[in-house]
Amino acid sequence: MQLAGIKLIGTGRYLPQRTVSNEDFTRFLDTSDEWITTRTGIRQRQISNGEPTWYMGLKAAERAIEDAGIDPQEIDMLISTSVTPDYAFPAQSNLLLERLGIRGAFGIDIQCACTGFVFGVDMARRYLATQEDVNTVLIVSAENITKFADYADRSTCVLFGDAAGAAVVQRGENPAYSFFETQGEGAELMYAHLVPPGNPFSDPEQVERYAELFPKGEGHYMYMNGSEVYKYATRALPDAVERVCAKAGIAPEEIDLIVPHQANLRILQTAAKNLGLPMEKFSINIDRYGNTSSACIPVTLSELRESGRLREGDRVLLAGFGAGLITGAVLFEVER
């Protein structure tokens, strides 16, 4: 059964005011602007100066609602995506609904790493297509990913920035297509620990035994096997594009715009080459923001919409990949 598509009616973004350049890292790391830029494509990133994740999400959501030109009370569902929420509970979607003053809607949090927004769009599409009382969905992707960065590790800390992006979607007239895949065998390639199990009745040796399943990483800092994740991403991104295009019955060259997860410029260049597509088809802002996890794609969408680059009838493909290992893509047509 082919479900109805989506109509993007509003977008918004929030970037912390603090800008950190590559040169700033040279004060405490053995690195250089050239070393970072040539390996990643990143020149600067915005980093939280204390703004919590929910606050960044709130500001992006407010701007998306304003851009959509709707009353917040018209929102029926709020989907929050983040790997860096401020609280274990309540859910971040609950906090956002309360701060936005929305009554009568329901919220849900999803944690799908850097692919979170793509999952959120597809989840919104399915609710809109199957639930008569869901007509408008707000998707908010907010990330304070730098709090998991080890600033003694030059190979990872230079990659990340903080940001939030949001989108308001409604039921569309044209079909949309999606593809998702999880390769759980790669879970150990990138992870970060939370509070470990422990209580007055725990056996410390038993707790330690389970901890050995994912032994790397200092404290709560993220661990990433960069070379293996890179290899995965260069395969997964073009595969996701081809698979979702196959579902739509089109060739990749018929896509007007690809909005990818901004992990590394070389990954995007390799994917474009493997697909036989020009880089002009890819919307890229990694040089300014770095990797902001699930916020990458909605921040980029917000910039595209603001600049008028999302034209009616354009085929737009959102493509994410990240820890899990997870890949996801959604293909839709811009409607007015």
UniProtKB/TrEMBL annotation:
The Beta-ketoacyl-[acyl-carrier-protein] synthase III C-terminal domain, residue ranges: 245-333
SUPFAM superfamilies: Thiolase-like
Alphabetical list of Pfam families matching this protein: ACP_syn_III (PF08545), ACP_syn_III_C (PF08541)
Keywords attached to this entry: Acyltransferase, Cytoplasm, Fatty acid biosynthesis, Fatty acid metabolism, Lipid biosynthesis, Lipid metabolism, Multifunctional enzyme, Transferase
Subcellular location: Cytoplasm
Active-site residues per Swiss-Prot or TrEMBL entry: C114, H261, N291
Notes on the domains: The last Arg residue of the ACP-binding site is essential for the weak association between ACP/AcpP and FabH.
Name of the protein: Beta-ketoacyl-[acyl-carrier-protein] synthase III
Organism annotation: [Clostridium] methylpentosum DSM 5476
Source lineage: Bacteria, Bacillati, Bacillota, Clostridia, Eubacteriales
Gene this protein is translated from: fabH
